[in-house]
Design goal:
The protein has 10 helices and 15 strands. By secondary structure, it is α/β, with parallel strands linked by helices. It is globular and about 75 Å long. The two termini are 40 Å apart. 47% of the residues are buried.
Length: 387
């Protein structure tokens, strides 16, 4: 694994990206190696790094500030350290070694979103030399790829770590086009317990699969009701909130009554829709299955949650647009941690190098020009915060 080195102007984003992609950093797994490398690298540059652990203690979020951290009006640059797995994908190069293939810098996470992290780290000397009057806060989160689980713990600590920021740039790949809004997401897994029996005497058992199937039908009916009677937002495609059942697990053999079944479903909301209110009938349906004797018990586990990002940061989007030359985009279909920063009262925009269409795919890549464009954006931010 890479050894932390001083950040020098000669340490380009490409060099730092090569170090970052060498850490698999899968979500939900201990991230000490990559978080430790980033923290050590920033500390070697003279920054104070705050470690914000997850409740189970084996994964970390990080925050470091450049300039007067106690001065309000700074800017947060935020990115996640984790990447999605590569199992089952046909890569032509080693996914955890940065490889230049005809100008494409290939590796898992190159575009989503270690390219942005590499630029954040490479820009430290530039920010330090700029004489910032308002600070830049570098935020590194964990577990974004499994429902933005890490960022809420980091955001909760911001009031004690730094003065209120004027805005947040979440560097998900957008081609450096400022993105104003995205949908939110809440996902649940509901588990039903039944009672096993031989299939020749089904009345002796309680078939948990049937309870899960009833809930799946309720999800389908609720989804239809949203389409026909829900709110619309023309910025999105589709222009309504969507509800989908995705995974049903039950049974071990056709001659055994299933004593356990689970159903996972997700709701993606347009800004302004109340996710909890829309999901409440489904949780009530699960409870009704038990009350009617079609299951012995049930339990719901929330597996993902992040709020929608409403288009409330037009001024920040216009400023970034003037710096990047890219016209602001009203919305994207994917979700980010920007909704969480917005919910905490921080105007937030999605804007980062690379193309989201390359994310989560084999031979994911970013280009040197895209990294250079991000560094140019940071240079303009440095001038802005130095005035």
């Amino acid at each position: 694994m890479p050894t932390p080195e001083p950040i020098k102007s000669t340490r380009t984003p490409e060099v730092i990206l090569a170090d970052l992609v060498a850490f698999p950093g899968l979500p939900g797994q201990p991230n000490g190696p990559i978080a430790g490398w980033i923290a050590d690298t920033l500390q070697a540059a003279g920054l104070t790094v705050h470690r914000v652990p997850m409740p189970d203690g084996d994964r970390l979020n990080l925050l470091a500030s450049i300039g007067p951290a106690d001065q309000p009006g700074g800017m947060i640059l935020s990115g996640h350290m984790d990447v999605v797995p590569v199992e089952g994908q046909a890569w032509t190069t080693d996914p955890f070694r940065l490889t230049n293939v005809d100008g494409r810098l290939q590796a898992r996470g190159a575009t989503d979103m270690k390219g942005f992290l590499a630029c954040m780290i490479a820009a430290v000397p530039m920010f330090q030399a700029a004489g910032l009057k308002r600070p830049v806060h570098l935020a590194f989160s964990c577990d974004e790829e499994i429902g933005c689980r890490g960022a809420p713990y980091l955001i909760a600590q911001l009031p004690r770590l730094c003065a209120p920021a004027a805005g947040c740039i979440v560097g998900e790949p957008s081609g450096l086009q400022p993105v104003l809004s995205h949908k939110g997401k809440v996902a649940y897994e509901v588990a039903f317990e039944g009672r096993s029996a031989h299939s020749s005497e089904p009345a002796r058992g309680v078939n948990a699969l049937y309870a899960a199937a009833s809930l799946a039908r309720a999800v389908e009916e609720q989804a239809g009701a949203i389409v026909t009677g829900g709110r619309r937002d023309p910025r999105f495609s589709p222009d309504y909130s969507t509800l989908v059942a995705g995974v049903l697990r039950a049974g071990s053999a056709v001659n055994i009554i299933p004593d356990r079944a689970t159903l996972a479903f997700e709701l993606r909301t347009i800004p302004g829709d109340d996710a909890d209110a829309m999901l409440a009938p489904l949780l009530a349906c699960a409870a009704a299955e038990v009350e009617a004797g079609r299951a012995v018990s049930w339990h719901a586990t929330e597996i993902a949650r992040y709020p929608a990002l409403p288009p409330d940061a037009q001024a920040l989007a216009d400023k970034l647009s003037s710096w990047t030359g890219q016209t602001p985009r009203q919305s994207v279909s994917y979700g980010t941690e920007a909704g969480l920063f917005h919910a905490a009262g921080i105007p937030s925009i999605v804007c980062g190098p690379g193309d989201i269409a390359r994310a989560h795919r084999p031979d994911e890549y970013i280009t040197a020009d895209e990294l250079a464009g991000c560094m140019s954006l940071f240079a303009k931010l440095a001038r802005e915060l130095s005035q």
